[in-house]
Amino acid sequence: MNFEDLEWRKQTERETGSLQSLPDDWYDDLVAYLDDDALDDPERRSAEAIADGLVDRRLGKIVKLASWDAADAPTDTSPLTTPEAALYADLVECLERFRAETLAPAREETSE
Predict the structure, then answer these.
(1) How does residue 103 score in pLDDT terms, banded at 50, 70 and 90?
(2) Nearest to 96 by CA among 76, 67, 73
(3) Where is the segment annotated Disordered (predicted)?
(4) DSSP state, residue 23
(5) Fewer CB within 10 Å of terminal CB in the chain, N or C?
């Protein structure tokens, strides 16, 4: 990974509504790149800001996908990396539980 690749990934993620595919080891590569002693401070700070923006954009899309999934809408999870897939599964479970607990009293009243 290098600075240009990171910028390109963020730009691509920003320009599309859908989650873009990343290599499964992308987050490991990102951490290794940001920890590289060869980076000077300005480049490191810029790279960290770009990485934060990219991760935030992906998290927003993952939350949206999880929300759709919890509402039984079709979703495409193929672009998720392994860490993102674990987060996604947790989010869907949490959203489904919330929906069930929130709507349960209304359903009980309707069935009486």
Answers:
(1) confident
(2) 67
(3) 1-21
(4) -
(5) C
Is the pLDDT assigned to residue 60 strictly greater than 80?
yes
Handedness of CA 77, 83, 89, 91 (dihedral sign): negative
Query: What is the fold of 3-111?
Result: Methane Monooxygenase Hydroxylase; Chain G, domain 1 (1.20.58)
In this prediction the pTM is 0.88
**Which pair of tokens denotes residue 13?**
């993620």
HSE of 90, CA atoms in CB hemisphere, 13 A = 6
Q: Are 19 and 80 in contact (CB under 8 A)?
A: yes
* Nearest alpha carbon to residue 61 among 41, 35, 34, 80: 80
User: Which amino acid is residue 102, in one-letter code?
Assistant: T
